[in-house]
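re: the backbone from monday

yeah here it is again, tokenized this time
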């Protein structure tokens, strides 16, 4: 009980600090942490858990996790007009239903960053004889990981963001250039990644806490995102991505699990041997959430609905035809879709069908951000850009072979790059990656690969970002909005 009280205290106090008039203002230590905090190893662990808890709150207040799927527009929306607005890039017209405008508010992200900064500052000084220096370094490194992950997610939403890295900084900060923020995160992670554990003995911690593998995956993703905007150095970013994922694979901690009717849900419930980094939502550990893609893509008997056994949204047939050529077998098409080529609302997307309570639609699984198949394909993509064709095809076919799909035996160059992109579309559907893959690869301007394409002019004006909430601008006059969303 004492542990959860302290976590709650930290979260509540940070929420208050985040609402202060001065944006990013951090209260003095004695106000933020209380007299009895930072005394024991348990206090330090509670603070780390508090940072994860703030992120989880952010992702469970709306559709943020699946925004990367919805903004690509590849769905039949029927009467879900708030989600339709996301799929048409009308971000100022969502109406807020289902938390569709939740991403505009970055306050909770900065609360997680503020707590991470405190952990980095204070953990090393905890005077607990049972708290070894090795464990202190590991927990401090975990705080670095949480901070870097949060900044990475933020730049993909907003582009340039204020960079806050001091525990007691009270000076208002303007938005920092996105590539500068990412470079800081890469250097920060490089300095601490070897202090992180390879895994945790407690199975409840598998994939839901920062590890060396999670840091390597995050660094690889940062490099691939940066490559899309840092054209003079794109080859360096691809090279680094390939090397980082190779290092991750050589850890021998992760593996591709078989796709069978009996076992595929194990991966998407979370904490599997394929999981690299997730936020815990498993009902067995107190988590439950229903504002996720499964809420709208399932119906009877998985969830009780009020529209006669129909889904509220379904994947577009032309989108499925793009990624699953008709006549070619693929276990994912067989396992993840019910009646996929129907033209009405009866099809279901079954990838996330681990529902504990059909009445409340509680989703029994984690939010998966990085998993093994994802980073394998990231390495395949980087190698394809580097013209290392043989190794790229090997990586691509690892994922295709697991799905019993037709192996790639074509040429390198653009054909291979396109094949890897399509494989990421298939493999990661519903995991929130597609919009960001479209943006960083420049494919967002191609009407043939997305229903919500952007012109180059729109892209340059920041149409790929989210609007920034008015409260952020009110609280910090140094904040400017992205040009596209100024009305």
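seq for it, each position gets an aa:
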């Amino acid at each position: 009980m004492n542990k959860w009280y302290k976590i709650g205290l930290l979260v509540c106090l940070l929420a208050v600090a985040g609402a202060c008039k001065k944006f990013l203002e951090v209260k003095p230590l004695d106000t933020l942490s209380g007299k009895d905090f930072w005394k024991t190893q348990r206090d330090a662990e509670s603070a780390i858990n508090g940072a994860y808890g703030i992120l989880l709150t952010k992702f469970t207040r709306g559709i943020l996790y699946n925004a990367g799927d919805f903004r690509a527009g590849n769905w039949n929306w029927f009467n879900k007009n708030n989600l339709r607005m996301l799929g048409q890039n009308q971000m100022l017209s969502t109406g807020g239903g289902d938390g569709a405008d939740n991403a505009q508010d970055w306050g909770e992200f900065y609360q997680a960053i503020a707590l991470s900064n405190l952990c980095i500052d204070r953990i090393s000084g905890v005077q607990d004889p049972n708290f070894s220096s090795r464990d202190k370094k590991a927990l401090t490194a975990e705080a670095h990981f949480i901070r870097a992950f949060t900044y990475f997610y933020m730049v993909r939403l907003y582009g340039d963001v204020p960079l806050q890295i001091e525990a007691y900084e009270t000076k208002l900060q303007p938005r920092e250039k996105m590539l500068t923020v990412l470079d800081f995160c890469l250097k920060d992670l490089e300095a601490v990644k070897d202090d992180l554990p390879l895994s945790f003995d407690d199975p409840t911690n598998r994939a839901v806490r920062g590890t060396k593998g999670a840091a390597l995956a995050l660094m690889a993703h940062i490099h691939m995102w940066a490559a899309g905007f840092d054209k003079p150095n794109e080859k360096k970013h691809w090279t680094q991505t390939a090397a980082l994922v190779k290092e991750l694979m050589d850890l021998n901690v992760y593996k591709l699990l078989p796709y069978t009717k009996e076992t595929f849900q194990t991966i998407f419930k979370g904490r599997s041997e394929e999981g690299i980094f997730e936020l815990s939502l498993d009902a067995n550990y107190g988590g439950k959430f229903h504002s996720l893609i499964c809420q709208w893509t399932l119906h009877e008997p998985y969830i009780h609905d009020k529209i006669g056994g129909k889904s509220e949204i379904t994947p577009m047939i032309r989108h499925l035809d793009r990624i699953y050529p008709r006549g070619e077998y693929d276990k994912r098409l067989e396992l993840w879709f019910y009646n996929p080529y129907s033209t009405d609302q009866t099809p279901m997307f079954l990838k996330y069908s681990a529902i504990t309570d059909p009445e409340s639609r509680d989703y029994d699984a984690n939010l998966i951000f990085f998993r093994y198949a994802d980073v394998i394909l990231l390495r395949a993509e980087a190698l394809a850009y580097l013209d290392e064709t043989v190794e790229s095809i090997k990586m691509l076919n690892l994922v295709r072979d697991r799905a019993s799909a037709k192996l790639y035996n074509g040429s390198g160059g653009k054909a291979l790059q396109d094949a890897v992109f399509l494989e990421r579309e298939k493999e990661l559907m519903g995991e929130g990656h597609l919009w960001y893959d479209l943006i960083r690869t420049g494919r967002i301007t191609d009407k043939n690969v997305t229903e919500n394409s952007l012109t180059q002019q729109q892209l340059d004006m920041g149409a790929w970002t989210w609007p920034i909430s008015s409260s952020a601008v009110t609280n910090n006059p140094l904040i400017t909005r992205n040009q596209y969303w100024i009305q």
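Confidence is low (pLDDT under 50) at residues 1-9, 11-32. The chain is about 45% helix and 5% strand.
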